[in-house]
Design brief:
By secondary structure, this protein is α+β, with helices and mostly antiparallel strands. The chain has a domain of about 50 residues. About 30% of the residues lie in helices and about 10% in strands. It contains four helices and two strands; from the N terminus they run αββααα. It has a two-stranded antiparallel ribbon with strand order 1-2. Strand 1 and strand 2 form a beta hairpin. It is flat, with a radius of gyration of 28 Å. The protein starts with 15 loop residues before the first helix and ends with a helix.
């Protein structure tokens, strides 16, 4: 079975473009499967199951839906391959970053620009002992 969502993948670092692609693919998957009909048994009865809700401490009814289908995946793959074939510039071309890309955000959370490291080292700490007071 094809796993569309990567929510079970823990401790993986993705670049922003990969993150955006994953989110867009998840949205496509959601939109394709949002209106799945309720599953039925061989006798034609609607399938339901139960699920315990620990917050309310009660059992709830859960509707069982028809199993997902991934008929849209070959269409996406063919569109990607077609765009790649028709691409005249190639993969190595320069692409400017989008304004919402986190790489463009400041590398620190400070509201002022950082001073030079040498200046910070030369500063006297308030915890440093004075030579006069230690004698």
């Amino acid at each position: 079975m094809l796993e569309i969502s990567c929510s079970k993948s823990l401790n993986l670092n993705f670049r922003y473009n990969a993150y955006k692609a994953r989110k867009q693919l998840t949205a496509i998957d959601w939109n394709y499967h949002v209106s799945l009909p309720q599953a039925t048994t061989k006798l034609g009865e609607e399938r339901i199951t139960r699920k315990y809700n620990p917050r309310t401490r009660q059992w709830d009814v859960k509707i069982v839906k028809v199993e997902k289908g991934y008929e849209y995946v070959p269409v996406l793959i063919s569109r990607m391959l077609n765009r790649r074939i028709c691409d005249a510039d190639g993969v190595t071309r320069h692409i400017s970053l989008n304004d919402s890309n986190p790489v463009l955000i400041s590398p620190t959370i400070a509201h002022i620009p950082p001073p030079a490291t040498k200046e910070i080292v030369q500063r006297k700490s308030r915890f440093a002992s004075d030579d006069k007071s230690s004698k």
